[in-house]
């Protein structure tokens, strides 16, 4: 073999011969060779050619590259020296630098675009030269820059061959490691094992106690591992390289070495069918029943891959034939999965149980049916396996074959006596499954074998229902032609036509109607298909229904027509169609609501205009007296309000309690709406039945901007209610300092008295508003004013314990009062407010129902409720975040939140009209299996890995990417802005309602019932009237832990590069596991259940202050429940964190409730939970949840006169 040194031809005698000529060119070359940079530059300044060469073709760049003169090389390259110039033997500067091992010059030449794979005489490359001379760093650099080690010399020698010949171990290692293909770069010995390269392996193992860097390594090089934990023996086993494997074992390789996931070389050899390797490993004491992390034995691996010779070898050597994975899969399951009949026959010959089941109760026949493996299925049936074995949820092999569209397996099972009417736990027959999936041939085959198309599930649904649910038009046609009942009724009385109408499939609707379906069929809650089409906005479906005689005047159980529903969802095309067909635009639903009310409420201005254009009356009133303009004013819907006024809506229309649209807009602070109404002659001083004017309501809510507009239009500053309260009284009572200042600037009377003789100063003192007290005193309010019962502002503050107010008034009050005895109780007085009454849409309530009546006056203002499918909850059309018709009144944020939760469940359709996500979970027969009519089958490659999650269940048998379209309600759905978008409630929401310990009606009647005698109402923000049956408050310390379930799994997928890959596998959770678990205080029949809020729920608006009294505004995010739970709401619940510094919490608007924790009383960060429990005296201790405790000492609690637990 020619050497690279011989090939270069740049020996010193050549140079000396050139030197004798003595001309300038030779002097230039001599200076370059000697590294004389100054002389080189002098020659170049003259006429010397930079590329001149001697008789052997060596130029200055060649010579400096050989000698390692980096500075001269840089200068020559910068001046344009030809980097690819070759000597007479074809060597470039890169060849010469590589041969000399000058890494810095090699890198400089490569950076200047020198060709790394250029070949000289005899085929030598720069890489070959560096490898021959043992320059490992140069070799590594050239390889990383694209040098090919596959280029051989004319003699057939590669860089690796010459390195092996020269014994350059480090170069061999570098070359082998860079020969690995794929993402994973394997160590040198692993590559030698892969290539069955005995010479390289021998060289690398000569000194096996040291690694390639010369450092001692535990276990020696022979058991060195990749990042995935695989040894060279694993690699040799994978490729069946007996020679290298024998060498490795002789050098001490561990035949039972466990890589990641506990994979041994025997697993690998079994997986890839290397029978001789299996024998070699077993002869060297490999453990035959070793299991991977997921429980796979070598027999599992070979059976799944269909290597009957390996299966036979393992069985003859005593491999356990009934070994199971973690999920119960046996080798026979594996053979059935891959349709490896010979392997299955071998296993059965060795007495493997034919009906072994997995943890999901799957037999090998289930598996064969799933994969459509007819031959194996027939073998199993011939061996007397049970054709009707039931898997998880009751699926038989026939169910599975029907789901996966395995027609040949279906025919085989029927031939062997499989039950055609077998049902799952949810009542699904094979025909149900095939109909839902749309497998026409199987449906026909089942019907021909006398399957009943009218067999109901536990929900009462027939195959026709399921075909309609999955939009399977052809299946519907087949079922109808074969006698299916077209108007079959499910559990909630819905027909297939209801389902088709919801999905908007005109073909299915037409087909059902043509076969005699009743267009006016009603469900349990009296919904017709037309109602459903109106909700979904399916104009074509609605048109077909109307053409087939559907009535547009039928009402639901709640009294609403399809036009109401179309108005609610803004489906203008359906609404227009209904009106064209003669629907009454002023038809009234329950509580007197018209479609115009509904369209206004949901801000569908286009529908509202359509209704008005079709002569809908803008003057229609609901049962509570609201006109559409009331609603628009409340919700600040300027466009609709303008349209209504253009159609002559009365701006002074009154509700039953005398409130006009202006009252509502003023209370909400809608300045533009107030201006619009006043421009249309709304009465600025209009009084409700209790005497409240818009100015009172603006004062109550601190809406100074509205008050300015009202004053501009001539509003009085001091109008009085029937009880004598002026706006100044109201703003002082509620502590609205900005409004107090505004009224005083407009000369409001500070001495005005109510019928009880209370001045604004009395009201401010009663409520503890020290800033308001100071402002009134500055404006000459008399601290000596005495009420009708002889009380001054100071005496009231003293009785209620407002220390700051007492300190302020004590120095200026001259009137004294006899100190009351302990038995004397102060009765808190409050101004009138706009109280409300909900109109219930429940079936057990016949009209009005008082909302928050425990905190409101004897008269309540009415709000309207809209349609809901089946719940008995009232719809409170309310306030800001709720965006509804409720008017703000003095109740706590928690009670608003509770009412809001009831609102969020209103206006929903029955759950049975929603495509039920549970149907897909019910059709799951193993973990992770999903069902979708659009599922596409993907074959399983026989080369798929068996190492890992593939066989923990049957997911990889299917490889389906389809997912169940389960609708998961967000954790804060109950508290988000009016969740009216999903009227057809799904089963999850229905179950949430079912899990409540009491009815929603119970919450409203019990949780917010008035707690006073003889109908007297109580204001929490104002203090409580002194009656014995008051609400009780418990203080508890609570802790919570949120759990996380992680199911990630990993697997090893050997391929040509023996690459480790990850595969995560999610197991399908049973739907019931996600249900809300509610907690209640069952001990107390009158108590509201524990209100638990999710982190996504609206924040409680509170004012938090330090113990010193300095306060700041903040919000508290409730975090005392796991995020998976859907919150339920009732009563009163507030919690906050406190540490050794102490703290205080009080209501932001209505500050009657205060919790104060002194400094150093909490030894660690502690959550204080305050819960409204019951109005009755408790005979037993408060039941505590885990991690809770009663407060040991309460420094101060208010309002005065309220009973507290603990």
Automatic annotation (TrEMBL):
Superkingdom of this protein's organism: Eukaryota
ANK repeats: 56-88, 89-121, 122-154, 155-180, 228-260, 261-293, 294-326, 327-359, 360-392, 393-425, 426-458, 459-491, 492-524, 525-557, 558-590, 591-623, 624-656, 657-689, 690-722, 723-755, 756-788
One GO cellular component term: cytoplasm
UniProt entry keywords in alphabetical sequence: ANK repeat, Repeat
Glycoprotein as UniProt keyword: no
Transmembrane segments: none
Residues covered by the ZU5 domain: 1132-1206
Keyword Repeat among UniProt keywords: yes
Region annotated Disordered, chain positions: 1-31, 859-878, 928-947
UniProt-recorded name of the protein: ANK
Species for this entry: Mytilus edulis (Blue mussel)
